[in-house]
Design brief:
By secondary structure, the protein is α/β, with parallel strands linked by helices. The chain has three domains: about 20-105, Rossmann fold (3-Layer(aba) Sandwich); about 110-320, UDP-N-acetylmuramoyl-L-alanine:D-glutamate ligase; about 330-460, Mur ligase, C-terminal domain (Protein-Tyrosine Phosphatase, Chain A, Alpha-Beta Complex), CATH 3.90.190.20. The chain is about 35% helix and about 20% strand. The protein is built from 18 helices and 21 strands. It has a nine-stranded mixed sheet, with helices on one face. It has a six-stranded mixed sheet with strand order 1-4-3-2-5-6, with helices on both faces. It has a six-stranded mixed sheet with strand order 16-17-21-18-19-20, with helices on both faces. Helix 10 links the parallel strand 10 and strand 11 (about 225-230). Helix 2 runs parallel beside helix 8 (about 160-165). The longest helix has 16 residues, at about 290-305. The protein is globular. Its EC number is 6.3.2.9. It is an enzyme of class 6 (ligase).
């Protein structure tokens, strides 16, 4: 347990009359928020109920920012002018309830940082595809020569960049947890990719509560702003009908013609945001393949057209983009078998997208910490594409129960090495071994990155 400089910080704000900003959580967003708050002259205190990593501890010490680790000292928190909390801390946490009861504002790092930048914000949310779409959008804008930063749920902290950089645009990947603590924030361009059941434990197990949280992406928008959404996603359409956004709407669809917006006609994407200036591109030229990635590419393409980027630049960038690590990442081809790392697929919907994009027979590695998953949506794809399931987790009973009638072979494994070896033996030339767990990773691994890295290392040992 460690504490740094607490007493001096606490008395300092009383003596100087400085506003006191308390930050809960000392990860990337928390330490970034601390950096910005200090730069703006606040008395800053950071409190983390868990262990602060050496990297972030060193940053706080270097900046002489007071902090505590492995505890929340109430008298040092409940005297805050405002609290910035990590998205991972639920509203039911005792310290949050006490702050709310005292009327102390609790906001997200995104909300806080936006006050100190005039940059245009392109905010991307959705249950699936956020990271890919955010990275693709950033890639296109950067290639077009825009002065653009990438932040939110991905990359470096937004607040830290606002403190040290001078970007004119930000692409922000925004989760529902972040949106819950955003109030005055406004997205210049808001993108809603889809709404599927995820994190329902934070929303009283009600999809409508989660959907309402996602719709906060359009709060405070005016008729001058832009809202981009998927016209094929029923839950999104339901949520939109309740809110009735006022921003300029640009829907996208692969089932019907939409203008203005984006649509698929046979194998060609059409993107039109204003008359007589259409972008067309063959889906075979997209760097990202699979139906779900047509949606992601359409969303990024609409953003690019709204910003009046040249068609040639957009096409080139959409054709040469490299996807993120642990998301349908090709690891190796061994004895004619493709090994694919999709460790970032921590919910059933992500695994559905991964299976949907497969063009060969699959040996599927799945399992981990089940978040109350409903595996029914996978059954048709598993029946048609999966020849064997290799479970990777401590408790695989629900996977066995869900798929025992759909595949002939279901095997339990308890390490990435074992899973890779057994999958290799079950697959034959022309097949794919796909790690797409549909579950969290915390039973056997530190996080999904650790799971993906161990899988890749195991594949390279085959």
């Amino acid at each position: 347990m460690s504490t740094n400089n607490i007493t001096s910080s606490n008395t300092k704000s009383a003596m100087t009359g400085q506003s006191r900003v308390v930050i809960l959580g000392a990860g990337e967003s928390g330490v970034g928020a601390a950096k910005l708050a200090q730069a703006k002259g606040f008395d800053v205190f950071v409190s983390d109920y868990g262990v602060i990593t050496d990297k972030y501890k060193a940053t706080l010490e270097k900046l002489s920012i007071s902090f505590e680790s492995e505890k929340h000292t109430e008298e040092l928190i409940l005297n805050a002018t405002e609290v910035i909390k990590s998205p991972g801390i639920p509203p039911t946490a005792p310290i949050i309830k006490k702050l709310v009861a005292k009327g102390i504002p609790v906001v997200s790092e995104i909300e806080f940082a936006k006050r100190y930048t005039n940059a245009k914000t392109i905010c991307i949310t959705g249950s699936n595809g956020k990271s890919t779409t955010s990275l693709l959008t950033y890639h296109i804008l950067k290639n077009a020569g825009l002065n653009v930063g990438l932040a939110g749920n991905i990359g470096q902290s937004f607040a830290a960049q606002v403190a040290t950089e001078d970007y004119e645009y930000y692409v922000l990947e925004i989760s529902s947890f972040m949106l819950d603590d955003m109030f005055a924030f406004k997205a210049d361009i808001a993108v809603l990719l889809n709404i599927t059941p995820d994190h329902l434990d934070r929303y009283d197990y009600k999809l409508e509560n989660y959907a309402a949280s996602k719709m906060r992406i359009v709060q405070n928008q005016t008729a001058e702003d832009v809202f981009i959404y998927c016209a094929d996603d029923e839950e999104s359409l339901k949520a939109i009908s309740l809110i009735k956004p006022v921003a300029k709407a640009f829907p996208f669809s692969i089932t019907k013609k939409i203008e203005p917006g984006a649509y698929l006609e046979e194998t060609t994407i059409h993107i039109l945001t204003e008359p007589n200036n259409q972008l067309t591109m063959s889906i075979s030229d997209l760097a990202l393949q699979g139906k779900h990635n047509i949606y992601n590419s359409m969303a990024s393409g609409i953003v690019s057209k709204v910003l009046e980027l040249r068609n040639e630049t957009i096409r080139e960038s959409m054709g040469n983009f490299k996807n993120i690590e642990h998301r349908l990442e090709h690891v190796a081809k061994i004895s004619g078998i493709d090994f694919i790392n999709d460790s970032k697929a921590t919910n059933v919907n992500s695994t559905w997208y991964a299976l949907e994009s497969m063009t060969s027979d699959v040996v599927l590695i799945m399992g981990g910490v089940d978040k109350g998953n409903d595996y029914n949506m996978l059954k048709d794809l598993v029946k048609s594409k999966v020849k064997a399931i290799v479970c990777l987790g401590k408790d695989n009973k629900r996977i066995h129960d869900a798929f025992e009638d759909d595949v002939e072979v279901i095997v339990n494994t308890f390490s990435a090495d074992e899973a890779a070896q057994i999958a290799f033996h079950l697959a034959k030339r022309g097949d794919a071994v796909l790690l797409s767990p549909a579950c969290a990773s915390f039973d056997l691994f530190k996080n999904y990155e650790d799971r993906g890295n161990q899988f890749k290392a195991a594949v390279r040992e085959l």
